Amino acid sequence: MTGSDYYIPAGVLAIALMVKSPSFWRTWNSPMTKSIFTILACSAAGFVFGAPPTIERVNRITGVSNISALIVYCLLSCLSCGSLVLVIHWRGGPEETIRRHTRVWIAATAAVMVTFCVLFSLSDVPIEQQRDFDTFYATTPYVREMIVLYLSAHTATSLVVATKCWRWARELRDLQAAWTHWGLLILVAAFGLTMSFALLKFLAVGARWVGTGSWDWLSTDVAPPIAGVGAGLTTIGFLLPVIGPGIGSMWASWRAYRAMGPLWRALEPFAGPGKPMRMSATSSPEIRAMARSTEISDRLLNLAPYLESSHREAAERYASSQGCEPEDALIFAEAATIHAALAAAAGAGAEASRQTPDSVEASAVAPARVSGADGLARLSIQFSKIHHSGFPVGAARSESN
Description:
Blueprint: H1 3-26, H2 31-50, H3 52-62, H4 67-91, H5 95-122, H6 133-136, H7 143-171, H8 178-209, H9 216-259, H10 261-266, H11 285-303, H12 309-321, H13 326-348, H14 357-363, H15 366-369, H16 372-385, H17 392-400
């Protein structure tokens, strides 16, 4: 692997860090925020310090041969610890239990990192190795123990996280937890790849122990790309439940905004004398959907003199007789009534604008029965399906045909 193979995923992780930095700043006191920051930062730094060009520069600047390997080992240990701590807080439970487990894992990680430093200081690794440190020094005293400890801790941590995520994913059946469910499944795959990375390293190191270097390619050529994919999936898995609901809300609002288009355009003659709402290019889908639903509601109020409650009731009875659910029948009745009102307004002209107080009171019920962006989106969809008709039953028949 070349330097770009390491720097590209590091850059992607750095972008994720920058995107999340405002929320990190706002919620820094949260243990979950600190864990996510640790995961992203250590993943990015691990790729940077694991890149051959960086290894050469760090070794030259520090004057300590192969010290980059020690740095990478420590960074990956922090990554594993951050993943475990995040899953513990994510899963929830008694506060005291969460704190105890968190302290245990942080203390264990600190002990492992101190052991790395002690073993590395006692070892003799004079020849710089930019790609195959693990296999080249697999039989060197003290470094051998450091490599075994690193791979064992990495495998154990990955197994624990993958198991916890899999068990939790199986418990989630609620549709509202869909983002968390998929995030957990992605994490299972991610930490499965992380275990594969450690096991491949183990195979290559074990082959060195028995006197052959023919399996070194597992450590130098196969394991690093697997680690890169695993790091990317880890980032996605942890961020998906956090940003997924927002993305889902934006998508639902955009769909509702688009779906309200036919009804909004049909009611344009009843927009009133006020200036139309202007949306900036950066307005969110939620704001656009809210503005359009407000405009539709206002236009329906202006159309109220032409809305007939008897027309609506007949259409609702017809839809119910055809087996529609009460909510669907209501949507159909409102759409049919609006069609009839628009036809009456177009045919009556100015004279039709005269109304009695009784007709206003009866017709004003219509805009309130279907409201909100989602309800008006459904109303607009039904409205676009119904052809103009003077009587809703006729419209219903044409629709059923």
